[in-house]
Design a protein that fits this description.
By secondary structure, the chain is of the alpha+beta class. It has one domain: Metal Binding Protein, Guanine Nucleotide Exchange Factor, Chain A, CATH 2.170.150. It contains 3 helices and 9 strands. The strands form 2 sheets. It has a 6-stranded antiparallel β-sheet. A hairpin with a 5-residue loop joins strand 1 and strand 2. It starts with a helix and ends with a strand.
């Protein structure tokens, strides 16, 4: 019976390792960090310029807790900009309540964002980053409202709001 338990443990260990490898291999696989951007600083300088939450999200592809951003309740006319470099990203005219807990938009401003493939959670998603600094903003999904059918699900800490 002991040999059988050891064999089961060995098999389960190998299965666990096999399941974890794609996730571990995908960490940091987004294309956003590989390109040169017009706004660039050393990692140490980014840490000085950003709050810890902004740094985690914008530079380390973190995610804030859902329903934690004050930008969820921002309904004034204006523009949502990158918290790292001030790049205008989204018009308030394209913001909608997706019910997900993150500020959501159905369309970015022209030339404001870039996208890359994100495999960090063992699934393929489309990462959204600032076109000027490469900062991670969130992800885009194909379940948004008309006219685009897109849901740009953004981290509020990665953005600031500038009223019109």
């Amino acid at each position: 019976m002991t040999e059988m338990n050891a064999s089961r443990r060995t098999v389960l260990s190998w299965l666990g390792i096999g399941a974890a490898l794609p996730v571990l291999a995908a960490c940091g696989s987004g294309d956003a960090e590989a390109k040169p951007y017009p706004v660039a600083f050393s990692d140490a300088d980014w840490k000085k310029r950003l709050t810890p939450s902004q740094y985690d999200i914008l530079r380390k592809q973190g995610t804030e807790r859902p329903f934690s951003s004050p930008l969820n309740n921002e309904h004034r006319a204006g523009t949502f900009v990158c918290a790292a470099d001030g790049q205008a990203l989204y018009s308030s005219k394209t913001k909608f309540d997706s019910g997900t807990g993150w500020p959501s938009f159905w369309q970015p401003l022209p030339g404001a964002i870039g996208t890359s493939t994100d495999n960090m959670l063992g699934m393929t998603r489309v990462e959204v980053h600032c076109a000027r600094c490469g900062g991670h903003l969130g992800h885009v999904f194909d379940d948004g409202p008309k006219p685009t059918g897109k849901r740009y699900c953004m981290n509020g800490a990665a953005m600031q709001f500038r009223p019109a």
